[in-house]
């Protein structure tokens, strides 16, 4: 949440209103909600923020990756299965099996992203339909494999990452329990947001990605291979989404329910709304993910408190918010060439 | 977004019907092939007593047996003795086909208007609950017997269509007037539909005589009747009348799209929104009305799920709406093609049950297969490449100018 202050405020009144409203909401949230709700928010933001950061790279390069939900599902599931198979609570090469699980989750997610990239870039598939396919395949594959390994669509429980507690610093008010006594996936998320922002806006790779989505022809003319840039961007979306999915499963859930909408439950789609809301700014997307994760944490809290409002209705709060947000950001300008296949004249 | 959809549809319309059918069939076979590899490899990780020993590894699953169960099991094993066409498995296949025709049409109508309706599932959930509740309440004031059947079923279907349509109109209006991406809003509304319907159920409509989350049953005479003496009676939960209605609706939608001015405007908005607007089509209203029509078809699917299959609304609604996406995409979003694609997915659904009973392979395989089918249908270029490599066909791209035909009536009829 401290990142929010550094968010450059765009000129348009709309963005000012969003950022201003966000700051007020943040202060109110920090003052009124309990510390446990704060930490829950930070952890629930992990899959949304990381999927959003990944989605930004893909979409900025001109490939709309709507299958990011599927990437979250496969990475979360793989993370749990691999940790379970290796033996949770033990370690190999001095590294805990949870970390090997995370690595496997990232690899599988990147592999899926590669397939998606080949299908979209090499075979010029419609990106939305191919993305839906990735989602539906993941939705079928996770419970399919789970039934083979665990004889149930839900996996066994493998436990979660231990909190990383920094002595002294963790005693600080607010930031102490938020940042210095927290599971590692929260730090992965924070570092990824800064790294994503740096990559996108401060490196030549970032400029290529933007050019590939805005004006691929110009990039091609400048001698940069548009296909390679798009491959790299889509693979990167797989890496970030993999960190998000596996980090969420191994750091927060400790298990994975593959039935129905799975434990991911639309967080990949919420991530897409988040980066549209943040106008493709990685740190803005991090801030946006706190909005949805905060609502999620509050609804969990409301359920536990046992108010007269039915749980099922409370559970829809984040989804309704996504719709409201989309109504207000409907005008987000997509990259000029997003969704289009680029064919180099050399063919 | 619009731009992209437009170009995609233009490409789809331009591709000849034969080519599209070829792509769909090729996609089907490619998915079956990849599915077979998946089944075989995953068998290496399963535990079993007997399996294929290969290089010190035991492979438990036999893909050939799995597909045998999937396709022939769905028909009730016609190659074995004592087979009758009126068997339970075939009834399940046709029951699923009937329901998938509705959801497939729902997705197809939106797609032809240039919109992705991923929300058919939610529209079906909402429409189904509305049907169950309205029929249960109306039954109290309507006489029973044949009169009840004649009055209650149309009421139920109509109410399902209205509520499904209204729920579909929401993302349509959000798209038209606030430019909110309909892919995301419809997916979110699926979650909202589940939350709202289960809240309504526990608040008002829960069957007091059951601990399952479900509504009271509709009276038996309000369920879709079966034709006496012809077959599929008893507890098969399938009615040929419902199937006939689905086919009639399919022909009706095809006629609506191809032969009416509304259909013409809808298709033009999908292919060439600027041209449609220039030609006097109110594009905002078109978005709302095509989403409403799409939602209404999803709602009818919910009504038939209630009135034909369970006789009540249950909280656990099967994912007919998501399968409708696969059905529509496999059918090239052509209403008449939806029938064939729905039959195929009906086989997959029914066959997954026979896989579940006859083999150890998880029935979720079918979910993976439908995802693969969508993936392969989305990449016709893949098959064109393979085709040109092995058959030596020159890859020919129609010149841009040929696209002019796309919006005309001829172009539309070519897909029928």
Automatic annotation (TrEMBL), chain A:
Topological category with respect to the lipid bilayer: Multi-pass membrane protein
UniProt GO MF annotations: transmembrane transporter activity
Entry's transmembrane regions: 12-34, 40-58, 70-87, 99-121, 128-150, 186-210, 231-250, 270-295, 316-334
Membrane recorded as keyword: yes
Gene Ontology, cellular component aspect: plasma membrane
Compartment(s): Cell membrane
Keyword Aminoacyl-tRNA synthetase applies: no
Keywords in alphabetical order: Cell membrane, Membrane, Transmembrane, Transmembrane helix
Name of this protein: Nucleoside ABC transporter membrane protein
Principal location class: membrane
From TrEMBL, chain B:
GO cellular component, one term: plasma membrane
Protein name: Nucleoside ABC transporter membrane protein
Membrane protein topology class: Multi-pass membrane protein
Keyword field contains Nucleotide-binding: no
Keywords of this entry: Cell membrane, Membrane, Transmembrane, Transmembrane helix
Entry's transmembrane regions: 21-46, 93-112, 124-144, 150-171, 183-203, 238-258, 293-313, 325-345, 365-383
Compartments, record wording: Cell membrane
Gene Ontology MF annotations: transmembrane transporter activity
